[in-house]
Specification:
With 129 residues, the chain is an all-alpha fold. It is 60% helix and 0% strand. The protein is built from seven helices and no strands.
Length: 129
């Protein structure tokens, strides 16, 4: 089999994966920590993962969603379950807490209510003294 100019100019899977890993900020992860791998530990192509994901959601009778929507689901679940903001931010691999707050701040109503209750308690205790 001869290789034409197209095949020679295309990046191989390893270099492509390295580019994706660097672009998503995962360059510091060890190879054993990839989410989707083949049995030998090699990464799956993103198109394969997406195809399998869509196939599984269809079989489960779920609406077609993007894989990225799972990040939003995870964030919503964590913050609604009162996981500390810093932990949720790290889990989501956001570079700053402000990124998490800007995107998901509307889910932090319980934090606001806790702050108001703490102020109320402090004022009541100060008034009783």
């Amino acid at each position: 089999m001869t290789s034409g100019p197209d095949q020679e100019s295309r990046p191989n899977a390893t270099s492509t994966h390295a580019s994706w890993t660097k672009a998503c900020g995962c360059a510091t992860r060890s190879p054993g920590r990839l989410v989707f791998t083949r049995r030998g530990g090699q990464p799956h192509r993103p198109e394969y993962v997406l195809h399998q994901f869509h196939k599984l959601t269809e079989q489960a009778g779920l609406p077609r969603i993007r894989v990225h929507d799972l990040c939003h689901f995870a964030a919503t679940t964590m913050l609604s379950s009162q996981v500390p903001l810093a932990m949720a931010s790290k889990t989501l691999r956001h570079s700053t807490l402000s990124t998490t707050t800007e995107i998901y701040g509307h889910l932090l109503r319980h934090v606001t209510l806790d702050a108001v209750k703490a102020i109320e308690t402090a004022l009541n205790e100060a008034g009783a003294a």
